[in-house]
Amino acid sequence: MIPGEFERRLGIDFFSTTSEGLGGGLRQVPEDFVVREILKDGAVADPERYDLTQPDKGGFLVCILEKRGQDTLTAVRKLAGKMRIDENRIDFAGLKDAHALTYQFVTVQRKRPSEIVGLQVNGVRLFPLFRSNRPMRSEPLAGNEFEISLRGIQLSRGEARRRAEAIRAEILQMKGVANFFGYQRFGVLRPITHLIGRHLLEGDCRGAVMTYLTAPSMIEDSSLNEIRGKLFETMDFGKALRTFPKRLEYERILLSYLDGRPDDHIGAIRRLPLRLRRLFIHAYQAYLFNKILSERIRSRLSLVEAELGDRVCELSLLGNLEREPMQVDCRNLDNVNQKIRLGRTAIVLPIIGLDTSFSDGVQGQIERRIVEKEELDEKAYRMSVMPELKAYGGHRTAMMRVSMFARARISEDLLNANMVTAKMRFSLPKGSYATILLREFMKSENP
User: Which of 76, 210, 239, 287 has the fewest CB neighbours in a 10 Å radius?
Assistant: First the structure.
């Protein structure tokens, strides 16, 4: 099956499995998509697994953040407002799905547990754990546990079970699936964050602002598309500020600024949180990675057997990169592929940025071809217009390792008459997307 237009626009051109899909849909209610963060020391972000009164010392209070139906940045902003502190005093390791029930570790600077116990606001809760000398960053993050229900499956229980097991068997045999960046990286309702990132890399702040405010979407409510279209026609930021819904907080921040300074697009962008602005650049880097990965698959290069010129990297038990990548040549080819078969090493592809160095061989030709077609050289990633967004490169595994991969539990769908649901449990390394695994089970043209 060929992916639909929505996925191809994000550089996702292939499925990893060939078995028939289940259909169905995701996230009918937040509890259908449960995520729990895992740290390298084995700690899982689950309040029920901790003594919440454990004492310790340090200037950072470690907590578990529970949120329903909102992104991490919004949840942090709400908590900061409730505590009357700057949101930069709340640190976290990674962003979690918006349309889900998620649990993750955060640290809050200069707060006592007694000030946090019972703290909640609009679908967000904090559970204080203990004090630490360090803020929460991405370094200790290992991955995430997932518990996900696919609903609205229009198959018999037996047929759904057969298809789910066939897909799972393929994935186990391949030891994973292609490690594309998922839809959340680009925006589910409006997949435009990478387009904004490209404008910023080009130094086109006006294009970035107007894309954020006016770009239409096939998925977003049609009335919002009309409002965005009217702004594109009139450029009346004051009127748009009166018509854009209050829930579109970031759009309203831009509009409020532009109402008095319609030509200061750099100033408008800088009104957005730094974390959000960096996401725009990261989304464009993710788009390029997806294009490179799709082109490797199109060129019939294996994701689990290294070729001369490829780069590989040693892995942790959960599948994260452990060391700097190494080049594959005729001297180490056989040894590298033996380590790949044992799950100790994986092929990696570049995340394009300031310090990117390309692979050799056929893979290197693919990488250069994709980058040259985009017509952005290394200087663009210095972000001379907005240096705080300077973007470095890196590497990411070509295959996503799946751990603790249980058989799907098929049952009656209590929310949809005459349909079934498939409940799945698994763990993924940090930076890998459950939606990319789940699309293999759904095989939907409109994920």
Answer: 239
Q: Would residue 233 be called left, alpha or beta, if left means φ above 0 and alpha means ψ between -120 and 50 degrees?
A: alpha
Does residue 71 carry a catalytic annotation? no
Cα separations (Å) of 408 from 148, 175, 420, 437?
Answer: 10, 17, 12, 13
Do 176 and 440 form a contact (C-beta atoms < 8 A)? no
Q: What ranges in 181-306 are assigned the alpha helix state H?
A: 193-201, 205-214, 222-234, 237-243, 249-260, 265-270, 274-298
Q: What angle do CA 378, 379, 381 make, to 5 degrees?
A: 75
Q: Which of the residues 97, 204, 221, 310 is marked catalytic?
A: 97
Which uninterrupted H or E stretch holds 429?
strand 420-429
Q: Count Cα neighbours of 308 within 13 Å in the Cβ-side half-sphere.
A: 4
Residue 185 contacts residue 11 (beta carbons within 8 Å): no
Report the SS3 class of residue 404: coil
Residue 129 in contact with residue 63, Cβ under 8 Å? yes
Residue 385 has pLDDT above 90, yes or no: no
Integer Cα distance of 254 and 251 in angstroms: 5
CA 77 to chain centre: 19
pLDDT digits 0-9 by tens, 262-320: 999 999 999 999 989 999 999 999 999 999 999 999 999 999 999 999 999 999 887 88
Largest CA distance in the chain: 67
Q: What are phi and psi of 100, to 5 degrees?
A: -165, 175
Residue 252 pLDDT more than 80?
yes
Q: Are 155 and 412 in contact (CB under 8 A)?
A: no
- Alpha-carbon distance of 435 to 12, in angstroms, equals 12
Residue 135 has pLDDT above 60, yes or no: yes
Residue 254: what are its φ and ψ, rounded to 5°?
Answer: -65, -45
The CA-atom distances, in angstroms, between 152 and each of 2, 54, 188, 204 are 22, 43, 20, 43
Is pTM beyond 0.85? Reply is yes
Q: Which residues of 422-440 are buried (b: 16+ CB within 10 A; e: fewer)?
A: bbbebbbbbbbbbbbbbbb
pLDDT category of residue 2 using cuts at 50, 70 and 90 = low
Non-local (6+) Cβ contacts of 252 within 8 A are: 241, 244, 246
